[in-house]
Amino acid sequence: MLRKRLLQYIEESKGTVSLFQQEKEYALKHGLLDAHDISTPESGSRYQDAYIERCNKETEELVKNETVTFLDQPISYLKEHKNEFIFLESVWFDVIGVDAVSLEVDDVFGTYDAMLGLKLQKKYRTHIVQYLEGRLRGESSYDLLFNGEDGLWDLNITLNDHPDFHEGLSMLAAYELIYDFLFLLLQTVDEA
């Protein structure tokens, strides 16, 4: 899956292909590109062209469209604005088979949750569950449900159960953490 999606991204790129370190290492390891065909952008610029919304949790109505600078806010912003969630779409999520990722604070438990739709076939359930249980700590660290209508996995992850998560992260750092986590999930499924 990851190989196929990354190849598609490479083919759609014109000239030198812009890949972040993780994608670059994968592309070189799997012989998708030569090193001289790759440029590496600044590490914090992955979501430079992202579409970002702040939305009302109850009504899902748009509160405000945001620019990438909004992601410099500490993730604790969500605890101060419990009635909101952050919705982010990025071309980089397409590379890992995710439409978008929403972040919010759970009203009951006060945990930080990431919600997304993962484009993987139903037959990969065992691999997905093994990865999630091996990487997250906690009793109910995730919810996973296959949505037959959309043909994707509805996945909710409790970020507090990720070993590298802490409340001092910016939203940008939290989205990078989620991206890395999902990239490794796809890599694991590909290698299984």
Structure description:
- This protein folds into two domains: 1-41, no CATH class; 50-191, Yope Regulator, Chain: A, CATH 3.30.1460.
- The chain has six helices and nine strands; from the N terminus they run H-E-H-E-E-E-H-E-H-E-E-H-E-E-H.
- It has helices spanning 2-12, 21-29, 77-80, 91-95, 125-135, 171-191; strands at residues 17-18, 38-39, 51-56, 62-66, 84-89, 98-105, 112-118, 142-147, 152-158.
- Strand 8 and strand 9 (152-158) form a beta hairpin.
- The chain is globular, with a radius of gyration of 17 Å.
Q: Please give the number of β-strands.
A: 9
Straight-line N-to-C gap: 11 Å
Going by CATH, the architecture of the largest domain would be 2-Layer Sandwich
Average pLDDT figure: 95
Instruction: Give helix and strand order, one letter per element, not per position.
Output: HEHEEEHEHEEHEEH
CATH class of the largest domain: Alpha Beta
The proportion of residues in beta strands is 25-35%
The share of residues in helices is 25-40%
The DSSP helix count reads 6
Order of adjacent strands in the largest pleated sheet? 4-3-5-6-7-9-8
Give the overall shape. Answer: globular
Task: State the major sheet.
Answer: 7 strands, antiparallel
How many domain regions? Answer: 2
Unreliable runs, pLDDT <50, ≥5 residues?
none
What is the C-alpha radius of gyration, as a whole number of Å?
17 Å
CATH topology of the largest domain: Yope Regulator, Chain: A
Structural class by SSE content = alpha+beta
